[in-house]
Each structure stands twice: as C-alpha cells, then as structure tokens.
TrEMBL record:
Protein name, UniProt field: tRNA modification GTPase MnmE
Annotated source species: Chryseobacterium takakiae
Position of the signal peptide: none
PANTHER family attached to this UniProt entry: TRNA MODIFICATION GTPASE GTPBP3, TRNA MODIFICATION GTPASE GTPBP3, MITOCHONDRIAL
Predominant subcellular localization, coarse grouping: cytoplasm
List of residues binding GTP: 227-232, 246-252, 271-274
Top-level taxon of origin: Bacteria
Amino acid sequence: MNNDTICALATANGVGALGIIRVSGNDALPVVQKSFPGKNLVKQKSHTIHYGYFMDGEETIDEVMLSIFLAPKSFTTENSVEIAFHGSPHIGKRILETLIKNGARMAKAGEFTLRAFINGRIDLSQAEAIADVIASENEASRKVAISQLKGGITNEISLLRTDLLNFVSLIELELDFAEEDVEFADRTALTQLLNKIEVKLHSLIESFQYGNAIKNGTAVAIIGKPNAGKSTLLNALLKEERAIVSNIAGTTRDTIEEILHIKGHAFRLIDTAGLRETADEIEAIGVKKAKEKVENANILVYLADAGTKDFSEDIEMIKSLLRDDLKLIICATKIDEVVPTQYERIEDIFRKEIAHEFDFITISAVENQNIQDLKNELSSYVEQLKVAENNVVITNQRHFEALQKSLHAVHKVNEAITFQISTELLAYELRNALEHLGEISGEVTNDEVLGNIFSKFCIGK
Ligand SMILES: Nc1nc2c(ncn2[C@@H]2O[C@H](COP(=O)(O)OP(=O)(O)OP(=O)(O)O)[C@@H](O)[C@H]2O)c(=O)[nH]1
Ligand SMILES: [Mg+2]
C-alpha cells in the first residue's frame, strides 16, 4: 500500500463559516509543517488542536486550526492533519495548492476511505455505509446506514462464515485422507448449518426490497390511456401544477418524475405518455419510455376513465404490463362525472378479467376525492415490506447480488450432500459459498470491485 501523502477538501465546496482540508499519509506532518512555522508539529501529541497561521512561503494565507491524529488512531490509520480555515472556497484552493507544493498530492475520490479499508480499520460494507450515511436524506435511510456503519451486515455474515469455514477445514482434511475413506465432517451437522445459513440469507435478501425502498424510494408508474387524467393525478398528489394538463389526448410525451414523501418514505412518481398506438414519432417514443418505466417500477397505478364504455383496451394494457413482483393499483378516475352506482360495476369488470391481485380505488383528481386513499395504499406497500426493528436491512445492490450468489452456492452444497457427490466437489462448492459471503465484507475482493465502489465517493471522503 502506497502511503504517500494525500490532501483534499473535506467540506462542501462553497462559502461556509469554516472549511476543512484533510491531509493523510506518512509525511502528513512534515508537509503541513512547511506552511505552519508557529509550532513544531512532529513533537505534538495525537488528538491535539493547534492555532496558528497557514503560510505559503512568506505570505499568510489564513488563520487556521490544525487537528492532529497520529497513526494508527486516525480515520485512515495513517498520520493525519485536518486544517480548519475560514470557509472561503478561494482560501481552500490556496491551501491545497500550497500543500501540493509542499509535497502532498490531491486525493482521488474515496481515497481516504479506501485507505481506512485497506489498512483494516473498516470493512468494505462499512466503507459503503459511509457513503450511504453522507447520502441519507431521511430518518429511515439514516438509520439503516448507521446500523451498517456499525458493522450490522458484517456481523451477521461473518458468524455464519466462520461456522462454514470450520466445515471446509474438516472436508479438506477428508481430502487429505482420501484413501482411508473417513468422514471428519458430520454431514447432518453440516446440513443443519447450511439450512440455518439459507434461512438467514433468505431474510437478508428479502429485506432488500425494503432497503431499496428506503434508499432509492419506491418507483410508482402512473399509466393509462391518453386523457385518463394521469398528469392531473400527479399534480393532485404533489399539490402543485407540475405537469401540463389538457383535454388533448397525447399531452404528456415524455416521462415526468417527482419525489413525494408519504409518512417518511420517498416515492418516485412517474407520469408517462398515455398508452396508445400512435403515428406521431415523438409520442411513440414517449409510449415506449412509459412501458420501460413500468419494467423498473415497484407499483403500477393504472388509471382508467370511469366514463369509459368498454374497458377491454385497459384490461389488455394491464395484462401486458403485469409482473409477479409488481403491485397493481387500479384507479377509476373522473368519478365526479359518473354516478356512484357505476363504481361497483367497473370494479367487477376488472376483477373478472385480471387474475393478479390488485387494489381498486375510485378517484377524482380534479375534485381531490379519495386521493388520500391512494396515498395510504402507496404507503402500505412500504409498510408491509418493513422488516422487524433491529433486523439488518440490505440496501446495497452489490450486497444483494453477493447474497443471491451465496444462496445459490449454498443450494449447490446441499445438492452435493443429498446426491453424495464426491468430497472434492463438495469442498469446491463450499469454497464457492464462502467466497461469495466474503465479498460483502471485502474479505474476498478485487481491484475492479474496489475501483467501482470508491470512484463513486466524493473527493475528500
Ligand atoms: N372531471 C374530471 N376531469 C378530469 C379529471 N382528471 C383529469 N381530468 C381532465 O381530463 C383531461 C385530461 O387530463 P390529463 O391529466 O392531461 O390526462 P393524461 O392522462 O395526463 O393525458 P395524456 O398526457 O394526454 O396521456 C383534462 O381536461 C383534465 O382536466 C377528474 O378527476 N375529473
Ligand atoms: Mg399527461
């Protein structure tokens, strides 16, 4: 590991009361010392603060406070200095330029955190949690990020991994004694452990739906024929005139995405172009985009004009868009224009034709009728995904994929035992499962994965 000295602005780039520049590496103290003649920094204790002037040669750049953290008791585990200056972006720039003149270099995105990981202070899932904590925008996302930062996922996984590792050792021992046909590893106990691991993996994998809802919000695609009232509904939900509404079919041509918070959870509402066959090239692109949005949505809110005589087109449309994991809400709209006795008839028509489970709501976006019911319905979707308090929630796509691969690998081990496949193969499958479990905490990793994770960090983190 290269311990050259890196520096970067740790605070947001803009005017503030204070700005902080971080310096870390073998020569952090000598590099800063060149610009801080007031005190002998090398002689100072760790976790001390020092007042003085930051100089570029003879020129005073700013009055600063230095915080010193000596290895290994720093974020990166290296010698580190934090320079707090008056929060002008220009001063920040001058200080960085001077530090580089003094022998430091600009840090790459996420390089401080990468060092903390490589030097063993945090594991990979904790490093990722730091990015999540910084990005958290509400209570729910803050809570799961903090629990991950404290090692939530790693703890759960590493216990299982240690148990499994014991078995691998025993099985490999069997391989060493292959000629003698002995079984060191109790297959029943191994199967029990595998079942335990499977249950755990399942529950972690399942928690991802909730985790994803917390982290990225729940995607709600608002779909229907032209003029069904989709844009009017979007506006009513947001309580603002966000999308253009008109009685001309085909008003919305692009997709419009807005965030709505309901009971502390974020929903990404997506208004789309009305679905129909169209000769208009631009509208046709909009229709294609609308369908794509449904593919990635969690909830499909399908709008059908309550005044429609024949719903067969709507029904066909819904059928073509449905998937098992999609929540469907059918809204009969513009109910201010029909008599209430019609509501049940409309619901019956849909119930007869659509086998997939759905909620049926009658609304008037213009008169704001039952919009709250729709909001409750959206919110209940997230509520039912919720995992028990204190349970670990997976929010990270990479973890989700590693867990799925682990589960698959565990299945394979189980198969190997059931079909009494060779010990070699069993050992191989076990190793495979271990490797995938190890990917989460970064016990097993490669440069490409690391590059991918840390390049998404901001510089200075
Ligand atoms: N009476 C009544 N009219 C409505 C209601 N919702 C929408 N409308 C009217 O229906 C027409 C179409 O509304 P839009 O919201 O533009 O419909 P859309 O589904 O977005 O249409 P496209 O963007 O063309 O696909 C407008 O004239 C709205 O005022 C409703 O609840 N009641
Ligand atoms: Mg519209």
